[in-house]
Design goal:
- The protein is built from 8 helices and 4 strands.
- By secondary structure, the protein is of the alpha/beta class.
- It has one domain: Diaminopimelate Epimerase, Chain A, domain 1, CATH 3.10.310.
- A 4-stranded mixed sheet has the order 3-2-1-4, sandwiched between helices.
- α3 runs parallel beside α8 and α7 runs antiparallel to α8.
- The model has no long low-confidence stretch (mean pLDDT about 95).
Length: about 160
């Protein structure tokens, strides 16, 4: 167990996520997701978490493992075309993870998603969380629009509102 990581997570208050993403920024992210989903058949979820609780830290849970758990918890997997994408920000570890359901993962490889994450991280390092989030959503939108253009009815299967954990 990494004691430094443990203390950083446990001593970081949850409101740090709200400071990075105040209500106005969350509304703009929600709007970007809503507009994005009109241009493809994918479904986006955006989740931000300041720090992890003790038990996940004691188990050595990584940001990637936490994103996998949230993929299930937020029901990103539960779309008719297996077309869900989760963008997860873990603020204390300064990690971004993008997970795509199997329908999308068959066409867009993880290295492409990782590239989007690294570009978002550059904006976040500069303290510009909203710009980083919106540019990441634009990149995800472009990938989904290219591989999964809308065809016929395109219901909104998942909430567009970002989740602060």
């Amino acid at each position: 167990m990494d004691v430094t990581r443990l203390f950083k997570h446990l001593l970081t208050p949850d409101w740090i996520a709200r400071r990075a993403f105040p209500e106005a920024a969350l509304a703009r992210v929600e709007d970007a997701i809503r507009k994005s989903e009109r241009s493809h058949t994918g479904e986006l979820r955006f989740a931000v978490e300041a720090g992890l609780d003790f038990m996940p830290l004691a188990r050595g849970e990584t940001a990637r493992a936490r994103a996998r758990a949230l993929f299930s918890l937020l029901e990103v997997w539960d779309t008719a075309a297996n077309s869900g994408v989760l963008i997860y920000l873990q603020l204390v570890d300064r990690r971004i993870e993008i997970l795509a359901d199997r329908g999308i993962a068959a066409r867009v490889d993880q290295a492409t998603w990782d590239g989007v994450c690294r570009r978002m991280e550059a904006a976040f390092r500069a303290g510009d969380f909203e710009t980083g989030a919106l540019s990441g959503i634009r990149e995800v939108t472009a990938l989904l629009a290219r591989h999964f253009p809308p065809a016929g009815e395109n219901p909104n299967e998942l909430p567009d509102r970002p989740v602060i954990l």
